[in-house]
Amino acid sequence: GVEYQYAFFSICPIIIILIYRIAAYFTAIKLHPDMQNVSIFQFINYSVGSDLFAAAVILGIILLLISAPQRFGILPVFICNIFISITAVFYIFSIQFMRVYETSFQIAFIGKENFTGISGMLKSAAAETTLPVLILSVIAILTVFIISIYLLIKEKNSSLSSKPVFVLSSILTYLLFISLLFFVHSPDSKMLSAKYPGMKAPLTELI
Q: Which end of the chain is more exposed for a tag (fewer CB within 10 A), N or C?
């Protein structure tokens, strides 16, 4: 069985996004000292709308993969490992992106850079990739695969046979995130400007 992996895959996106958000907060403070007026808990709270959306999309894709018929064996696990690794690398790159451009990664930014096709996007991304980013990316990928392999080995020695329970828990987690999207929204620039008058840091561009 691969029940342990289902639990691991459901938790992974939440951990990745939370680590990214904490790293983004301290990166923002280095870029804009007056960001210290915003606590890390407030920063996470202001970002929860976009983070919930990202988590819902990631969990939705994972849920689709782990729902594959049993005849595919551990192939869905391998694909999930690749997908989660790509997700982790993307968030690592997003921190580097923030350091260079002093803003969080946004789709609108691509238009501002006047990228010309896929080759231009790849060249721009490669130009901002540093050795620490590469090292962290390799560590993240290895961590995901090592944990997954460990869980596979551990599961072979386990009598656990409750795939429906783990699939159901993944579905409930996904539905929870979808439900929260209807009630949680990121604050707009006017509200943040009113709460932090005189702040030079572009808070809305950092969350």
A: N
